[in-house]
Amino acid sequence: MNLEEKVIALKEHQKKLKAYTHVSSLLFYDASTSMPPGAAQSMSDTMGVISGEIYSLTVNPEFKALLNDLYEQREALDFQTRREVEELHLEQEKMEKVPKEEVVAMEEAENLANHYWEIAKKTNDFSIFAPHLEKLIEMKKRYAGYINPDGDVYDTLMNEYERGMNRAQMDPFFDALRKKLVPLIKSVGEAKQPDTSFLAGPFAIDAQKALSEYVMDVMDIDKDRCILRETEHPFTIEFSKNDVRITTKYVEDDLTSNLYSVVHESGHGMYELSIDDALQFSVLGAGATTAIHESQSRLWENYIGRSLPFCKLIFPKVKELFPDQMEGVSAEDFFRAVNVAKPSLIRTDADELTYALHVMVRYELEKRIFEGDLTVSELPAEWNRLYKEYLGIDVPDDTRGVLQDAHWAGGAFGYFPSYALGTAYSAQIYDALRAEVDVDACCEKGDFAPVRQWLTEKIYRHGMLYTADELIEMTCGKPFDPAYYVDYLEEKFSRLYHL
Amino acid sequence: MNLEEKVIALKEHQKKLKAYTHVSSLLFYDASTSMPPGAAQSMSDTMGVISGEIYSLTVNPEFKALLNDLYEQREALDFQTRREVEELHLEQEKMEKVPKEEVVAMEEAENLANHYWEIAKKTNDFSIFAPHLEKLIEMKKRYAGYINPDGDVYDTLMNEYERGMNRAQMDPFFDALRKKLVPLIKSVGEAKQPDTSFLAGPFAIDAQKALSEYVMDVMDIDKDRCILRETEHPFTIEFSKNDVRITTKYVEDDLTSNLYSVVHESGHGMYELSIDDALQFSVLGAGATTAIHESQSRLWENYIGRSLPFCKLIFPKVKELFPDQMEGVSAEDFFRAVNVAKPSLIRTDADELTYALHVMVRYELEKRIFEGDLTVSELPAEWNRLYKEYLGIDVPDDTRGVLQDAHWAGGAFGYFPSYALGTAYSAQIYDALRAEVDVDACCEKGDFAPVRQWLTEKIYRHGMLYTADELIEMTCGKPFDPAYYVDYLEEKFSRLYHL
Predict the structure, then answer these.
(1) Distance between CA atoms of B460 and B443, rounded to whole angstroms?
(2) Do residues A228 and A213 lie in contact, with contact meaning Cβ atoms separated by under 8 Å?
(3) Model's pTM, two decimal places?
(4) Interchain proximity A49–B222, CB inside 8 Å
(5) What pLDDT was estimated at residue B112?
(6) Which CATH number fits domain B167-496: 2.60.40.10, 1.50.10.10, 1.10.1370.30, 1.10.287.470?
């Protein structure tokens, strides 16, 4: 094969890979939105076979030879193809470093740990989960050793979710956050609180559904290629750029839960819907990184969605759908209520201001566990101590404490920091956006085309062509700087609470 | 490898095949129940890749050698394994006879034909569809020639859907039907018609949904393993015996459309839910044939579901959900109304009595097309002539005539007769069932466990272990006899219409 033929073979391989990714994403989506409960085992059987097929596709000798050839000649390739080769090469190298038995054993241990975590959470008994957590931690240490024998374990694990993320970057980031946010949250807690009584409902589910569709229309989400379904834990998943699924959850006594889930997931969705056609069958046809993806959902949810102009835009519809609940309430009242900041126990319910501190607790604990400074048995007490120190609240039980998240039970250590990083990216991107686009005017007109065009031009269309650092530099004209995030929060909440 | 190892390899192969079948069924299901409209192309891309993978699994040389070895030694295998080997061998032989290019070309032609059929149906213009239909017919003739060079073309095509089905069997079957049913339908049409005004609605969709769930409970469908969703054309699909999906369609001014769809699809579902665990990862773990499957849905829909005792059982719930519409209506009135027989234009809306004649029209036309006695351009006029002759009605346009069904556009020639055969099987099975189980008593008690147990024992559990002929013989103690069907219809409708 000459170089041209090799490139064609590479593209064919990616097309096949894309089909398998479609299929495994669809299995996950089906399990979350439709599957009858008794089908879990057969779903898992099929998922196992498909994972094995994806593994074989990546590590088979024929493809390995092709990829190595192309990797050596990568300077001769066009930019997109070179990036594809780099991504695939990295993935293949990593897969080959970890013995297949270890991968299978880890998947089994994660399934088991998840099962016992569910029981532990339900019965508020950490000891049921503890031995499985210990085993997973040992396995993840071993796994990091395979991938990166000379590297730091926790850095290696964070890299699984956000390439380039490490403690050298995250420590000062979280330090800065802590120094500013802990006192700010304290002042906010002592200030006069806004009225939120009208957000207590009940809100009829059918009317909430109408609000979801309205919000998607306001954001100009292309419903020909994107649909909304219900799940327990909202998420976005894409099968192709022309098939994006967003999900939400309806709660009768909480209007904002669904409302801001839809705005958040539509942010994720808009990203996927706007990736260049040229990347459609490429491994690069997806959001750049976990944190960059989160920056787009948070940008829409908090920076735009919780702004006064956006609240003014959507409030007439809210009032039309819930006239009794919104009797005597103004758009400004609504804006203040959806921005209430109050330390709480559960991360996923946290407001914009306190959210990062929830993540910080997890970051510190993970770091110390993988540094060997903290044992699993010490984890619950340390969790509670940090919640008191950072958020000023007492954790009443492990169910609402150390057992609240599914991440550790699924072996996802090093994932949490990308949430905070993503939110911090948003602040800097939002600043750059506002310098070029009149976002408030878009809210007033109810036309977000200029915002979407700017984001598409700067971020969306590129898919995974660039790293997170490159994208931030290209979009904002300078490297990532967490000061934007801290300044944004300080300014917004000082104004809201008249500090 | 010794024989034992070969058998293990065979079972592993089937497990993989089962996962791929799960995946391709899920793609189809997702396209029918969820997928956004703009995603059709990416769905089709993925489907193409997965079909190719299934093809490769079946025809790869390593598996071929294994299967040939096992086929030669099949007498030494246990019954189930021997049947698995036979099925796989047959499938492989068939696949190898047809050149892959031909399969791909046929799929493409079917996609195209389907597209133009939709336009033709929408615009009532048969000429848009005609050239594509002609091309498909030529391709199917060629296909039959590959599969069975010395056989009859139409017999070969029918065999694709129902093994063993042929004109020698179907001609006398349809002759007998025509002779009895055409005059019976005429007499029914001249008799006094029951009142059906209370079935005109409107019936609130939410209440109809409650009725669906109630009916599934009455039939004791295991909702832990089977769920109901909505589609344009109701169907049942199974991903495993623990993951069965049934679908329905809600129409506001038609109560019975959804009601009997749910009963019908629950019949299909109950079959899949009751197949032996031993067949779970086997190619035999599915309903025996298309017609046997249809016999089970029709048994529940018509023979049980449209009986007076069943109507008496469910009518209190109908009355509770629709008190205004059912004011002054008795269970007997309801029974008479859901059994109204009236020649109509559309097969899928046809009643129990006239249904088989709709199928007969298609059978005759298909037969003559593949015998070369009928051209595509003569098809519409001939369709209309037969509807007049058999059903006594005038076809006003091709949209409600020759263009009504999707089957031909999808290349499914020879499929229709299995619908009529399945319904005829039901009659004979129902007769055998009633000889051993007091079905009326089950309706009175609202407990169908004895019926399900009997059907499981005789049919469901066996999956594809036996042929249709063997199953009928085992269940009824004699070979298939269409007289049961004709007698049943004659007796039921003579009584209903006091003939």
Answers:
(1) 21
(2) yes
(3) 0.93
(4) no
(5) 87
(6) 1.10.1370.30
